[in-house]
Amino acid sequence: MIRVVATGTFDILHPGHLYYLEESRNLGDELSVIVARDANVKHKPRPILPEDQRLRMVRALKPVDRALLGDLHDMFRPIAELEPDIITLGFNQHFDEENLRQRLRERGLGADVVRISGYPGPLASSSKIVEHILKTRGPTPPAGGEG
Fold first, then answer.
1. By C-alpha distance, which of 85, 74, 75 is closest to 113?
2. Phi and psi torsions of 32, nearest 5°
3. Element (H or E) spanning 24, and its range?
4. Residue 39 has what DSSP assignment?
5. Where are the alpha helices (DSSP H) in 26-145?
6. Cβ contacts of residue 100 below 8 Å, gap of 6+?
7. Minimal CA–CA distance to 14: which of 121, 143, 133, 135?
8. For the domain 3-137, what is the CATH superfamily, name and number?
């Protein structure tokens, strides 16, 4: 059995997330997903949805066999518990694949690291969706110009 682990924030689920998880699931027999903890998301704006809601949404997706929250202090702890053969990264995740492979080896974890390509749709990231909402549904200027 080939175990795959996908990781991410999964804020405002969209087709890009589903594509990432489907492609990850296609690499093995079982897909576990580690959802980032609110406190650990530091490389981008804080998630809009809290971690328990993001976890619940990811658990409901068809390609996902198991989903759990990441560890607050050691990102490798859940990976060691899951013992995956493959860890997938999304196209825009900030990890360097070779650096991650080295850190896994240092922890005695032999998983391969695979980067999944980006979804080709125009609204394939949470930040693009937020931008689109603000642009198309945000406050409208008052009629008759500035007042």
1. 85
2. -110, 145
3. helix 15-25
4. G
5. 51-59, 77-82, 97-106, 126-137
6. 87, 89, 113
7. 121
8. HUPs (3.40.50.620)
Q: Look at residue 61 and give its three-state secondary structure.
A: coil
Reading the block at residue 13, the tokens are 């689920």
**Chain segment 65-108, per-residue pLDDT in tens:** 999 999 999 999 999 999 999 999 998 888 889 999 999 999 99
Q: Write down the mean pLDDT value for the chain.
A: 90
Amino acid at 73: H
Residues 6 or more apart whose CB falls under 8 angstroms from that of 40 comprise 70, 72, 75
Please state, in angstroms and as integers, the Cα–Cα distance from residue 116 to each residue in 22, 90, 130, 133, 138, following that order.
10, 5, 23, 26, 33
Q: Three-class SS of residue 88?
A: strand
Residue 145 banded pLDDT, cuts 50, 70, 90: low
91 to 23, 59, 140: CA distances (angstroms): 12, 21, 34
pLDDT in tens, 113-140: 999 998 887 766 777 788 888 888 877 6
Q: Which of 1, 26, 11 is nearest to 127 (CA)?
A: 11
Q: Would you state the structure tokens that stand for residue 75, as one six-digit string?
A: 């990102």
